[in-house]
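pasting for ref. prot 1 ->
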Amino acid sequence: MRPHAMGGFNHLSYWSTPLSASNSESRPTRNASIEEIRALSDVIVASLEADKAEDLLAIDLHGKSSIADVMILASGRSARHVSALADHLSQTIKERTGVAPKLEGMPNADWVLLDLGDIIVHLFRPEVRAFYNLEKIWADDDNAHRSVDV
């Protein structure tokens, strides 16, 4: 996503969909509109940024894959940090949507996946992320938007 003056993601300028009252109660279901999905992905990205996730990448899969419309990848500094990111993000999503996401990988927290249906979030330890290199599989210049380090 494009950086703004203060650094970090400029969520609204990329997705072109402001968070509004109509989007504030969106649920991560296959019946959600793309605007609701993108608004929720903005909330997820903001939460990860606030929790000091590293190397944040949002990949727009809308119209390119049936598995999800948005894939978000981020790294934590350690297994404990990845676990904390996943716990806090899961809580944030449940508060926002009323539905807890499906979590996989929490016992070891090397790679944690949060599945919201339309949005998939991958949280990694840096060396695990480098090994699996999901960016190479899913991202290209047109659909991937990296957070700017502050």
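and prot 2 ->
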Amino acid sequence: MSQQHSRIGVVTVESLQKIPAVARLTSHIPPAQFGRYLAIGLWNTIFGYSSYALLTAALTPRVPYAYILAGVLSNVLNITLAFLNYKWFIFKTTGNYLREWLRCLLVYSGGIALGTILLPVTVFAIRYLTPADASAPYIAGALLMSVNAVVSFLGHKKFSFGATSAAAAHCPVRAGISSES
């Protein structure tokens, strides 16, 4: 059956890592972790974009430039869900919920600020360059979300969930080794 799958084009983590650009980007990521990241990332993207679209649709009749407020509100909700998914299923860290959640907020805060600035510009550009007037906020949200997904993974791997173990390695007391022993 697996030979039949390979003939009909099933994409696997291993096949993605045979692409030179993907291999360079993922060489420091264990394959199982990368596979979990892709699966959780797909879920986070679907949930994140759905909450943004739902809030945009709900707020548009009530608030001017509702897509901006929807972007900010959905980001807080989506960051919290993404944090829990990353913590439990990808990086598998224990404890430190508040510290790691705050670090996740820091990683994402740059994306939120940049997204808040770029969203109106991107909406304007889409409206100006295409006939997509009413759907421009949705298209812009999807474009900016994809860029943020790639950048944020690296921040989470190195800072949100990786800095604790790195700090422990450099600090003998935190690692459980006292300089007095």
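The CA atoms of residues 13 and 38 lie 9 Å apart.
The longest helix spans residues 97-129.
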